[in-house]
Design a protein that fits this description.
With 407 residues, the protein is an alpha+beta fold. Helices cover 46% and strands 16% of the residues. The protein contains 15 helices and 14 strands. Strands 9, 10, 11, 12, 13 and 14 form a six-stranded mixed β-sheet that branches. It has a five-stranded antiparallel β-sheet with strand order 4-3-2-1-8, with helices on one face. Helix 6 packs across helix 9, helix 6 (212-222) crosses helix 12 (344-360) and helix 12 (344-360) runs antiparallel to helix 13 (362-375). The longest helix has 28 residues, at 154-181. It is globular and about 75 Å long. The two termini are 36 Å apart.
Length: 407
């Protein structure tokens, strides 16, 4: 088996006018985020973090897809490279960024600023026993030119001891009060913990919400640097291991079993109900191991058109209650209409397409993505999945056209 290239690490790589965040996989140009599918972002991170080095296709497969992949690796990697080139404006025939070495792999040929990629040496700290420590000790010991007596008068020592005890008691009380007030917002999750999404409970009688809201919630949560949503492909794989139908509805009970089997930490369930002319969206996060509720959030939508905004609001609130900092939520909380579509019908077609893509294969999903972009010609994510579907179906010219439209 081919050795894997070093992990890209953390930090930011400067690639010409582009910046790549190695931890989040986000690509920016002049401050604007350029959409990349997660696997394409990982491929770019591996290549750009090893400029001028040949990275073989086998190495990329081992590091990014892994041995348990359930997709066509060859087509998947080819499409990732095409998507990266589309994002960078690169030309395969006359490359400025990624050079293809036929039947071998790829080499990143553009200049890369590695100064902030998380691999720089940390600042050296002087040891107290070293020269700097000796100078500091000398300065402290000779302050005012007087050497302190190592013994103090008993009365003064008693007063100093009592004062120190009082300070320690106050600190203990302050810490206890802080922990008590924060008891409902303990950082129950980290970005290393997988979160499993259950299907929404829809009591409105409107089928447009059935699969749409789960997909919208996944998109909203995937903006977070704090939460890691279990991929739909991994869910399908686990359902097969459970001897269940991959098309089966993911109830809270099934979601919890998936969560336990994948060593996840929490399951997220949502519901929508109609209240007169309003809609109530509720979200709940539960520990997979104990069943304890980790956080809740809800939001009210005054009309059908406001449901996605209400869902985004509830998702942002839930993120903070699960431990994500407010600054992180505010930084990574774009409106769902911006990252998906304002059309519920287009989002419904897209979410059904994603579901079919994972469960029945690319060719069966094409009509759904076609319908999504027909309803909303500006739906970039639908064009990306449309490109994946066309490429896996062997229709490369249509795949290239979809990629161009996506960008």
């Amino acid at each position: 088996m081919a050795a894997m290239p070093p992990s890209p690490g953390k930090g930011t790589l400067g690639v010409g006018v582009f910046e790549l965040d190695l931890e989040t996989g986000e690509l920016h140009k002049s401050g604007h985020k350029i959409p990349l599918r997660p696997q394409a972002a990982k491929v770019l991170a591996v290549l750009a973090s090893q400029p001028t080095h040949l990275i073989t296709r086998e190495q990329l497969k081992n590091q990014i897809w892994g041995p348990d992949t359930f997709v066509d690796f060859e087509h998947g990697l080819n499409l990732c490279v095409r998507q990266i080139r589309a994002a960078l404006g690169d030309d395969a025939e006359k490359p400025s960024y990624i050079e293809t070495l036929p039947r071998r792999g790829y080499r990143f040929i553009a200049p890369v600023d590695l100064s902030a990629n998380g691999h720089t040496q940390p600042f050296a700290s002087a040891s107290p026993n070293g020269a700097a420590g000796k100078v500091q000790s000398k300065a402290l010991g000779s302050e005012s030119g007087v050497t302190q007596n190592r013994f103090e008068a008993p009365g003064r020592l008693w007063r100093r001891t009592m004062a120190l005890c009082g300070i320690l008691v106050l600190i203990a009380l302050a810490v206890s009060s802080f922990l008590y007030l924060r008891r409902d917002t303990v950082h129950a999750l980290t970005n290393k913990d997988a979160v499993v999404l259950a299907d929404f409970s829809n009591t409105t009688g409107e089928p447009v919400f059935d699969s749409t809201l789960k997909e919208a919630m996944a998109v909203s949560l995937e903006q977070s640097e704090f939460l890691a949503v279990l991929s739909d492909g991994r869910v399908v794989q686990t359902l097969k291991e459970m001897k269940r139908d991959p098309n089966e509805r993911i109830t809270q009970e099934i979601a919890r079993e998936i969560c336990l089997r994948t060593s996840g930490k929490a399951l997220l369930a949502g519901s929508i109900a109609s209240l007169g002319g309003h809609y109530l969206v509720q979200l709940k996060a539960t520990s997979c191991q104990s069943g304890d509720v980790l956080g809740r959030a809800e939001a009210d939508a005054t009309s059908r058109e406001k449901v996605l905004d209400a869902l985004a609001q509830a998702a942002a609130t839930l993120r903070t209650r699960l431990g994500e900092s407010l600054s992180s939520v505010q930084k990574n909380d774009r409106r769902l209409e911006e990252v998906t579509t304002a059309s519920l019908e287009a989002l419904q077609a897209y979410s059904e397409g994603v579901r079919v893509f994972e469960r029945k294969g690319a060719p069966a999903a094409i009509p759904f993505f076609n319908r999504a972009v027909e309803l909303d010609p500006e739906f970039a994510a639908a064009y990306l999945y449309q490109a994946y579907s066309y490429f896996n179906a062997g229709q490369e010219s249509l795949a290239d056209e979809s990629l161009k439209r996506a960008y």
